[in-house]
Amino acid sequence: MLDGNNVYGKDLLHDSYKKSASTKNKLSFHTQLGVHLYNSVDEAEAIGPALPKRAEIETLNMAGNSPAWSG
Asked: N or C: the chain end with fewer CB closer than 10 Å?
């Protein structure tokens, strides 16, 4: 129930919730983070084969833009 300052009074925050809230919130955060990271692995593995070709192209671009090579 709201008190006169539009904040929830003490009656809604029971002692059992206060004692377990940080643990539950931390567990929820870690679970969500784990799911996100697990899904990221598939994306990273899909990008992996294209990286060597991209690195080769970038090396050629850097060599072509270098003042040492522009006789």
From this structure: C
